[in-house]
Automatic annotation (TrEMBL):
Catalyzes two steps in the biosynthesis of coenzyme A. In the first step cysteine is conjugated to 4'-phosphopantothenate to form 4-phosphopantothenoylcysteine, in the latter compound is decarboxylated to form 4'-phosphopantotheine. Binds 1 FMN per subunit. Residues 198-411 form the DNA/pantothenate metabolism flavoprotein C-terminal domain. Residues 1-202 are annotated as: Phosphopantothenoylcysteine decarboxylase. It comes from Streptomyces pathocidini. Residues 203-414 are annotated as: Phosphopantothenate--cysteine ligase. It catalyses: N-[(R)-4-phosphopantothenoyl]-L-cysteine + H(+) = (R)-4'-phosphopantetheine + CO2; (R)-4'-phosphopantothenate + L-cysteine + CTP = N-[(R)-4-phosphopantothenoyl]-L-cysteine + CMP + diphosphate + H(+). Pathway: Cofactor biosynthesis; coenzyme A biosynthesis; CoA from (R)-pantothenate: step 3/5; Cofactor biosynthesis; coenzyme A biosynthesis; CoA from (R)-pantothenate: step 2/5. This is Coenzyme A biosynthesis bifunctional protein CoaBC. Its cofactor is FMN; Mg(2+).
């Protein structure tokens, strides 16, 4: 039996259109194409004419197994300017330049990619890349807001080195992170009517564990890795939200694509960052493990061990209760507040008591312990609602728990 030709599509292969804009980051789209293809997606690349100055047509055709062209006049009998978008399960544009975002927002169609964007009825993901000044310009921000309002997923650009010596916000997120967004968007699309239920919303997520310094080399901390908070951030992006992630001591985790990351260390710093971000947020999810106490005194020098002398007891003082404060003083009407509770025994009873005490709308209760929940890739929980509801989430990937949380948040926000 002869092998299947590379450009013949298996019936169950999701069809993805990879649009490539004319920016220096176009070379990174090759890695995104590879990840999509190797994970079983049938990918057709539609570059702009400008993009071909950075990566040639032959490269796109060879990597995808399909012809790559920006022209609407090639193979006219197949009506590519209509058919490509109609047949797609996902359109992802990476990099999306300021020019492409403007054309998409205003419905212009002067090449094959912009025609495809107009005819697509599937989820659309834009991964912007441009200089900071271009991203921050009011025209670009208006165009992004328009696209998000229509249901497109426009992920926030990363912060870092741009062209030349410039640095700032505008860098294309890493291809692996863009791929994760695409994967989740396709998964959401498979669940009918649920792909963009957070579109137009701003959500704040806290992640990680705070550390309270005792002296210049020691701190009081906890085992939280931040993985659940990062899963919440990634799934929210895939569902169309604008996401601010307040990350406490999560240096080992890569920044999720499309997320504004604010880094903090202590509980006091986390409180300040969360309250600032929550001022215009529709929902706040407090997944971080915030220390209840901190040392009453900070030693300016390392506390020395002295032979024959027992150390002085460490006096502790309470940290601010960020979850209770958020719940009691909502920054805007209808804001949904979600808390997390790590329990070791009497999970349901302790969870219900904490829900009542904190005053939040939802409380995700985890049973924790050695080698359980903290640091793992999986989780299970019971989500308690202030309305008396109980939603069990069976053992599985942390993304599954994240999606359940957002399902419940979306019901309450809408």
């Amino acid at each position: 039996m002869s092998e299947r030709r590379v450009n013949e599509t298996a019936p169950d292969q999701p069809k993805v259109v990879l649009g490539v804009g004319g920016g220096i980051a176009a070379y990174k789209a090759c890695e995104l194409l590879r990840r999509l293809s190797e994970s079983g997606h049938d990918v057709r690349v539609v570059p702009t004419a400008s993009a071909l100055h950075f990566v040639g047509e032959a490269t796109w055709s060879a990597l995808s197994g399909h012809p790559a062209s920006h022209e609407v006049w090639e193979t006219v009998h197949e009506v590519p300017h209509v058919r490509i978008g109609q047949a797609a399960d996902l359109v992802v544009v990476a990099p999306a330049t300021a020019d492409l975002l403007a054309k998409a927002a205003h419905g212009l169609a002067d090449d094959l990619l912009t025609n495809t964007l107009l005819t697509a009825r599937c989820p659309v993901v834009f991964a912007p890349a441009m200089h900071t000044e271009m991203w921050e310009h009011p025209a670009t921000q208006e165009n992004v807001a328009t696209l998000r309002r229509r249901g497109a997923v426009v992920i926030e650009p990363a912060v870092g080195r741009l062209t030349g010596v410039d640095t700032g916000k505008g860098r294309l997120p890493e291809p692996g992170e863009i791929f994760d967004v695409c994967h989740r968007v396709l998964a959401r699309a498979a669940a009918a009517g649920r792909r963009d239920d957070l579109s137009g919303l701003h959500v704040v997520v806290s992640a990680g564990g705070t550390r309270e310094p005792l002296d210049p080399v020691r701190f009081l901390g906890n085992r939280s890795s931040g993985k659940q908070g990062y899963a919440l951030a990634r799934t929210a992006v895939a569902r169309g939200a604008r996401v601010t992630l307040v990350a406490a001591n999560t240096a080992g985790l890569p920044d999720p694509a499309g997320v504004d990351v604010v880094r903090v260390g202590t509980a006091v710093q986390l409180r300040e960052a969360v309250l600032k971000a929550a001022a215009d947020a529709d929902a706040v999810v407090m997944a971080a493990a915030v220390a209840d106490f901190r040392p009453a005194h900070y030693a300016e020098g390392k506390i020395k061990k002295r032979d024959g002398v027992e150390p002085e007891p460490i006096a502790l003082v309470r940290n601010p209760d960020v979850l209770a404060e958020l719940s009691a003083e909502r920054a805007r009407p209808g804001q949904v507040v979600v808390g997390f509770a790590a329990e070791t025994d009497d999970v349901l009873a302790n969870g219900r008591a904490k829900l009542a005490r904190k005053g939040c709308d939802l409380l995700v209760v985890n049973e924790v312990g050695e080698h359980r929940t903290f640091g793992s890739e999986e989780n299970e929980a019971l989500v308690l609602g202030a309305d008396g509801s109980e939603t069990p989430v069976p053992h599985g990937p942390k993304e599954a728990l994240a999606d359940t949380v957002w399902d419940l948040v979306a019901e309450r926000v809408r």
